[in-house]
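Blackboard transcription, Thursday session:
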Amino acid sequence: MKRTQFRNGYTFLLSVLFVGAIAMTVTGTMVLLGWLTMRTSATIESSTQAFELAMTCAERGLLSLFEDGGYGGYEEFSIGEGVCDILPVGGAGNENRTLCVEGTKGGVTRRLEIVVQRVLPSIRILSWQEVDMFTFCTYN
Amino acid sequence: MYGITMRHHSFRSGFLLLDALVGITVFAFFVGIAGFSLLLSQQTAIRSGDRVRASMLSEQAIEAVRSVRDADFGNLAEGQYGVSIGTDGTWQLTGTGSLSEDGFVTSVQLQALDDDQFELTATTTWTFDTARFGSVILTAHLANWRKEKEIGNWAAPVLDGAFVDTSNPLFNAVTIMGEYAFVTSEISSGGAGLYVLDISNPALPIRVSDGFSLGVSGYELIVSGNVLFVLTGDDANEVRAYNISDPNLLSSDQLLGTYNIPGVGRARSLALFGTTLYVGAQESTTGAEFYALDVSAPAQISLMGFLDIEGGVLDVALYEGYAYLGSTQDVGELVVIDVFDPQDMVVMECGGCNLTDVPDGQAVGAFNGIVLLGRSIGDFIQELVLFSIAEGPAPAPPPQPKYYGVDANVNGLAWEPTGTYAFLATDDGDQELQVIDINRFQTDQFPRVASVDTTTGNGRSVTYDAFRDRVFLTTNGAVLLYAPGP
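(Written on the board underneath:)
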């Protein structure tokens, strides 16, 4: 003689917990994904502005160098909520000058390293590249 | 006996229905939350995508205006514009805004900061529904750094000013920083080794910091920012770095750092790229002749690399990652070195660098795809040599190079940056400064288009100041400033 006993509600409880766990995991993941997506877009926006800030300092630095061959750099400009910095200009005279600049917005920094083949009679650029770390310039 | 199995089922009435209803309700609740979060996540992703797209459109607008500026800075004027691609395939400023295919509106606002700069604000806005709207604003400055400065007519130079020292200190090299010229000299006839001239009025150079003496002979020198690097005859500290933030106050207290080139006072030539200082030295049987120094911290100048080569290095010119050396080597008066990596410099193979006879390569310049080499006088040679490096960094053997007979030592060499003219400092008693037309030289015509006679002694070095369009000639007893003619 076999006697089967049911513990009433136990299956139901397990089912609820199981489905609930899955649902909460899915929800949490989705919320996290959404937050990360929002943060990524904000970072891209900051990065774009940081790049334009770096370009701004590059343009200002090149103009200053054109007008004064003894221009030493080492300047900072605030534009909107960001800043850009011109590092000390490298080289001497009219040829083989290096200009390094960086723009920062919202914790994102973009850096440009420019090698000027000559300054006058018109600026001729040998290379203009975005870099992770400066190789031609130092901060002091 | 057959076994009998009896089942006992005890049911609570209605439980099944209630259980199912509660289960479905709870399940639906959780599925609803998950679904809502999916929907929310999707909406967030779409809104984030809108912002990324707007950032790109604003950046594109800035680059479009930059492209318009590149064509001609005069194309820019204050106002609000849209950007579009014209029929000729170039960016144009049109209307007051531009609408993208996916519904974003971008406009750029130009505001003049001065005659040579604009502030540019690019704004992209979007409104797709009550939840999808916003704006992205990017700001940048555009400058007129592509303008061009005219170079004068150097076929007729005129004396503009002079600093004369009747004691004939044997002036050596000149470098310029703003309103000041720094000039080195020998000390054998009472010279100070280093002079500072105020050239704010080029017609009347005035010596400042006249109490300062280098104490040893000064050779080549170069300015980087507020630091002057000068090569000296000091046995233990050939390379010296001085703080010249105020040239009127130059003194021994302004010495920032030194570097000892092995040997005794051998350093003779200098070139700077970024924070790397290249030093050429006289030939030694025990030491190297070419050094790369890290001068990023002038107080702690350090060695990056060196090359032990045949012959002394009397002059150095840098061009596109290569160093061109004027050498005392008898079988290679011009030496080409790959200096892309200062820690691993390499002498290039150069089939055309060994010139006729043995007079030294004393002065060298590299610009616009050519190398000029000035040599000491020789009975069977022409002292000025023009190499083409358009096809590669090392000059090839004949039919190049081209020659011009100076009939004197070529002690110094400079050029103006368009590459139209080069300037020679020579020992020729009637033509201490000579002006060479590079185009005529390249086309086998007589290249000298002007010369200057000075009574202040031999031409010892020449420097071109691009910012003033002036030539500085040093002689035994004077620093002479020349201007282009009318």
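Lecturer's comment: Chain A has one domain: 2-131.
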